[in-house]
Write a structure and sequence with these properties.
heterodimer, A: 288 residues, four-stranded antiparallel β-sheet, 12 helices, 42% helix, B: 267 residues, mainly alpha, two-stranded antiparallel ribbon, 11 helices, 69% helix, binds magnesium ion
Chain lengths: 288, 267
């Protein structure tokens, strides 16, 4: 059970003067249960890549297989399997349309032809997941909410389809830190409790380092690095800079401390573990 | 895909026609179109044909592209031919009950359809070689003298520019919202008419909301920068005539004079 890309390339508007090769020759496999972060500069092809994962775009060349089914096949199975990959677009609140939040979140489940009781149950669950009280919000208009709340409604609309894979394209763009943290916390909770596979496109390196267990670094339409966040940030800095990726402040701090001769393990990437390391060192020193 | 529609069919390049001042191109196109109607003899049509070929050559556009410009209007071209072929009096070539095709009719039909084709090709050369924004600049500049008579030249041009500016944005937005709803299982392409119209709601509602939001934001941004109409505004890209503009205008005028002369002398 996995999403598999085989030598995928995609060209926008082929055969016109505006032809643009957005991604080239990407091969990778995302296993069920992984939490993958995709980072890279604006225009590096992240959005184009993820739109292949549920068949919104079909590769100009190459294949995309979800659970071993080719998404480009025009069969009912291909269509069905594409539905198992949920997609939260950049600024998803721009897709809200219904008169009430309930109706909007129910749009996806209804398209799955579920009966109304099941739809209602899923809407309740999804709204609860994104921290919107069902009783309070279900019958309100989605257009009178704050930006952060609107985004949660939109995310709930995707979660309500209960996908096996969830792709989020910069879900925190344009939100204030509190709303951003809340959304990331919900994604993590979803990942832990539902065991779904998460593919997160983000600009926020700290978040990527903290949340993901695998990181893809994209530049100029190619995947330049693929590995654990620790490995990626420890790898060739030149390569990272060339890809336009800033190393997290934490990694820089650890580097600076190590330069000063303070012995902290090189692979410390979170604040918590750094604090633990420093406390442990102090205790050791005090003991002497 | 929706964003595949290239706006106003502009085809970038740096040919003689691309480099001409937009005002020259607009005026020359208008004159050329008028001169098409001066032609009445085979010789005159020959001259016209060669001039159109020359213009296409000077644009260095792919021939396929130019041919494609006639395609959406071929029904009208054929219809023109048919109407003329049937309705012009003359010696009958073919007769059946009350329908008759005359020799004069066929001749007239061919010439009229040719006129149409010339007209379409020449005007699409203008839009192929001029970006919409530059075209608007040209129109504004040409309309400027009419401001004295109360024609709001600048405001008209500004409205056109803004509309043009937002067409690709809205197309992109449509594409994005459509994808987002398809990802949630929306179906925009099946069902009977009423159902299909209803299915479009998840696309149209967000699209209108976003268009209004953008309009609002733009208005605020313009107001915040104290934008006000045309009086004494300077511009980033000044239009300037070059010697080639004289050459182009001279060429078109010479063609018109030649055609006028042929018409009066009956050649
Ligand atoms: N609909 C489109 N039409 C044409 N070109 C596009 C379109 N979408 C993206 N591109 C181009 O493809 C490249 C990759 O874009 P994208 O996948 O959106 O990158 P990212 O999400 O990493 O910012 C960019 O150069 C962009 O200009
Ligand atoms: Mg993107």
């Amino acid at each position: 059970m996995s999403i598999k890309l085989e030598a995928v390339s995609y060209t926008y508007m082929p055969g016109t003067p505006y032809e643009k090769r957005a991604i080239s020759d990407i091969s990778l496999e995302i296993e069920k249960g992984e939490f993958v972060a995709i980072i890279g500069h604006t225009g590096s092809g992240k959005s184009t890549l993820v739109q292949h994962l549920n068949g919104l775009l079909h590769p100009t060349s190459g294949r995309v297989l979800v659970d071993d089914i080719d998404l480009a096949a025009k069969t009912p199975e291909a269509k069905k399997i594409a539905r198992s990959v949920g997609m939260v677009f950049q600024y998803p609140e721009h897709q809200l349309f219904a008169e009430t939040i309930y109706e909007d979140v129910a749009f996806g489940p209804r398209n799955l032809k579920l009966d109304e009781a099941e739809v209602r149950q899923r809407v309740e669950l999804a709204m609860e997941f994104v921290g919107l009280d069902y009783g309070k919000f279900a019958h309100r208009s989605p257009f009178h909410l704050s930006g952060g709340q609107m985004r949660r409604v939109a995310i709930a609309g995707v979660i309500a389809m209960q996908p096996d894979y969830l792709v989020l394209d910069e879900p925190s763009a344009g939100l204030d830190p509190a709303a951003r943290n809340a959304i990331f916390a919900e994604i993590v909770q979803l990942y832990r409790t539902r065991g779904i596979t998460v593919i997160l496109v983000t600009h926020n390196m700290e978040e990527a380092a903290r949340l993901a267990d695998r990181m893809l670094v994209m530049a100029k339409g190619e995947v330049r690095m693929d590995g654990k966040p620790k490995e990626v940030f420890r790898a060739d800095r030149e390569l990272l800079h060339a890809a336009g990726v800033d190393v997290p402040r934490m990694v820089e701090l650890v580097d600076a401390l190590r330069l000063k001769g303070i012995d902290i393990p090189e692979d410390t990437v979170s604040v918590d573990s750094l604090v633990r390391e420093i406390l442990a060192r102090q205790r050791r020193e005090n003991a002497c | 895909m929706l964003t595949d529609i290239t706006l106003g069919q502009y085809y970038p390049g740096d040919s003689f026609l691309h480099k001409l001042d937009p005002r020259t191109k607009i005026v020359a196109t208008l004159i050329f179109i008028c001169s098409i109607f001066l032609a009445s003899t085979y010789v005159a049509y020959g001259v016209l044909f060669l001039s159109v070929l020359l213009a296409v050559g000077l644009s260095r556009l792919p021939a396929k592209l130019v041919a494609r410009s006639v395609k959406p209007l071929w029904v009208i071209v054929v219809l023109t031919f048919v109407i003329h072929a049937f309705s012009t009096p003359g010696a009958a070539l073919f007769e059946w009950k009350f329908i008759s095709i005359t020799d004069a009719g066929v001749q007239q039909g061919v010439l009229m359809s040719l006129r149409l084709v010339f007209l379409i090709v020449v005007s699409s050369l203008l839009t192929y070689t001029t970006s919409p924004i530059v075209l608007t600049d040209g129109i504004e500049s040409l309309l400027n003298p009419l401001r004295r008579f109360g024609v709001p030249a600048h405001e008209l041009a500004m409205m056109m520019t803004i509309a043009l500016r937002f067409i690709p944005t809205l197309l992109e937005e449509t594409d994005r919202i459509m994808k987002a709803q398809v990802a949630r299982g929306a179906d925009f392409s099946s069902g009977h008419l009423l159902k299909r119209a209803k299915n479009l709601l998840p696309l149209l509602v967000p699209l209108f909301i976003s268009a209004f939001r953008r309009a609002d934001e733009l208005a605020v941004a313009m107001e915040a920068r104290c934008y006000r109409g045309g009086e004494n505004r300077t511009r980033l890209h000044q239009l300037a005539y070059a010697p080639r503009d004289g050459v182009a205008l001279g060429g078109v005028l010479a063609l018109t004079l030649a055609l006028a002369w042929m018409r009066w002398s009956g050649l």
